[in-house]
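$ ./design --mode recover --in tokens.txt
reading tokens...
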């Protein structure tokens, strides 16, 4: 009798998890277009676009650490509960996701914090925006961790290693660009004296190579996972970062005028 009750509870929990997974996944595809459209007209008020009226603020390094943290602790909490937790394919697949977010959650905020001039010249980060990002990261971490550790089909996927290898190459190239560009921007801001025109490397092609790198990363992730969860995350990344890159590009043009290179695009080299 106890075994039967336990089995019934397990099935009920699995059904609940499947429903939650699918509802969150569907919501990703519904909220993506409104986010893209709204960000064409209204930018999140942090960094270059900081403005009053969004409530209390906290230091940017702390904001980045807190709002990105679910990608680490929730992923590590959920992964061991999946049926594929011991499958080498699942462990290897989740590793790039964790690598990116270890940098974003720990290394990137620490680098900002250690730049004394950066801390003195950077406006606060609105708590309201950090809470929105925290909520998104909760949802996304749940989706990616559950897909990799529970719902992916590794047994019948004969093309797994080919897709993983190709996607990983794309992911790594994007991450290198993203990390290098972020490091250059933090260093430039850390010099003091306000905003300056970024020079060198991919900055000669686009105003926001850091955003382009992140878009490329999650395209690689979509290829690696070959799933609606990975593809939905890629689309959401584009919906969020492409309009912001365009706003940053316009900001540079307005601030620096004729001194700003006219050949640069916003985020996609030679295209946009």
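writing sequence...
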């Amino acid at each position: 009798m106890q075994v039967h009750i336990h089995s019934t509870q397990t099935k009920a929990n699995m059904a609940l998890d499947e429903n939650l997974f699918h509802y969150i996944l569907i919501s990703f595809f519904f909220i993506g277009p409104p986010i893209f459209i709204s960000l064409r007209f209204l930018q999140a008020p942090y960094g270059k676009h900081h403005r009053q009226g969004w409530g209390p603020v906290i230091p940017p390094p702390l904001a980045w650490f807190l709002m990105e943290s679910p990608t680490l602790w929730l992923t590590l909490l959920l992964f061991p509960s999946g049926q594929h937790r011991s499958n080498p394919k699942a462990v290897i697949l989740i590793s790039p996701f964790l690598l990116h977010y270890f940098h974003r959650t720990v290394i990137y905020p620490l680098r900002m914090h250690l730049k004394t001039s950066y801390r003195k010249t950077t406006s606060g980060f609105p708590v309201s925006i950090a809470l929105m990002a925290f909520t998104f990261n909760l949802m996304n971490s749940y989706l990616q961790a559950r897909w990799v550790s529970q719902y992916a089909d590794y047994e019948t996927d004969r093309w797994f290693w080919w897709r993983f290898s190709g996607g990983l190459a794309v992911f790594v190239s994007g991450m290198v660009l993203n990390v290098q560009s972020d490091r250059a921007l933090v260093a430039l801001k850390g010099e003091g004296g306000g905003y300056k025109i970024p020079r060198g490397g991919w900055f000669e092609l686009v105003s926001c190579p850091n955003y382009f790198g992140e878009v490329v990363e999650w395209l690689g992730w979509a290829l690696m996972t070959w799933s609606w969860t990975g593809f939905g995350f890629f689309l959401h990344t584009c919906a969020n970062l492409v309009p912001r890159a365009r706003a940053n590009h316009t900001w540079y043009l307005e601030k620096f005028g004729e001194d700003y290179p006219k050949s640069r695009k916003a985020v996609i080299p030679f295209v946009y």
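exit 0
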